[in-house]
């Protein structure tokens, strides 16, 4: 109302606003009282905002409607206010901002150049979109003209791991936002990207190091330098499904969903946001990664059949990613242990164990990636009589364990492949006899194909024996094993454990059958390695129907150069010596790579220096 007495103008007002919101954050019901202050030439504002039993705020100050002084000067005392109103200023870097804040703020300046200053205690959670990870903090935030300041803020991931953050969000009168956030994580979940058709890589990355995020509403840069820690799994898809479909010689089998399928509502929301932001925002990632044996790295070669190489190892890798360009990877990755999922025409599916010392070298463009990988697949029982039936010495011990060895060198996409056969439990003269019999590369490849396909040596056409019915049973049992293994790999998607089956028939077809469960895995933070075969065989010549082989290795050092090894192996499934049906062993191993003999005594020199 207006009240004019003598020469004094009095103007007072009151206003009630239900569910008052600021930047889409509902702060509560607001009661406003205002009156004209003739001396200040402005409206004095006294407002109370309250969300009953949750939050409240007091706003006092002046609104200056008249030029040239037009603007605001408001003091805000907030208690447990919803922090979502800050989402607008941070929207280019974080989303899902939730939490509460208590503190004092001043909103001031001309209407076209407003600014903030003050201090607040903030207890909030948020998601960093580019990393798809959530973080929480409960700390003080300083608000200064043109800048939000974060100083030594302790961030927590969803699992309680922490890191220290420093940085700022700079603005020009609450517009033209740019930011820089530097985080030093310690074993934190720093990336949790789900499989997405727009990204060639995904995975869960835990690490210790440094993460620097900077940018504005048009661009986002991430400089990441980390040493991987436990439970890290990173997958890179080397080619899209359409181009991979034509590659049918060597494949790697994947256990993940198809790339255009996201399995959670959260994933669908994320994909929609990427499609909305991507055309307008440049995103650049530069990752310096120190790969450790705690991390599993997987290269998917063919997303159609799902073929892949998966391994744990060491190396320094640099990954460059531009959402409007290509992915580049640099560095050398040395594999300590791993699996090569081999598929031939999607009929033969076998898990090759990658030998320690294998490596993959990245030199930028993925087409230039090279590999030097040695892997083997073990056929537990194959008859040498099929290979050399006329040899009387072999007839005494027909069934042997056979290692099918594969050596891959050269280009990752078209490697040079050399196959070989090893009989790990046989005498040197037997090894030599078999090698002489397989004197050409063609003969070697033929035997490897049969061993992988049906678990038997190929019988030459010039022999007097026939094996058509037994061969058919072997083909059926091998195909069934491959399909069961493929189903198990999709159901049990665990990088620490591999579970499979092996169904094979002997010389007498279905009356001489062997059924095994295959198990390999890691325990105690990947320090205990387990490999085992457990099963049943129905053979009239066997002394026992139980099949049980296992091998364990305990890494006494983190690098694995000193190991304790124990094993139990069944003898009579191959042949019997001295009536010992099983063989056990226990020992300690030391392994060290060196170029000169004096490097083996390096620890002695260090000890002498320490004593001095």
From TrEMBL:
Q: Name one GO cellular component term.
A: plasma membrane
User: Per the database record, which ranges form the Translocation and assembly module TamB C-terminal domain?
Assistant: 157-594
Keywords, comma-separated and alphabetical? Membrane, Transmembrane, Transmembrane helix
What membrane topology is given?
A: Single-pass membrane protein
**BP GO terms, sorted:** protein secretion
Query: Could you tell me where this protein is found in the cell?
Result: Membrane
Protein name according to UniProt: Translocation and assembly module TamB C-terminal domain-containing protein
Instruction: Specify the species.
Output: termite gut metagenome
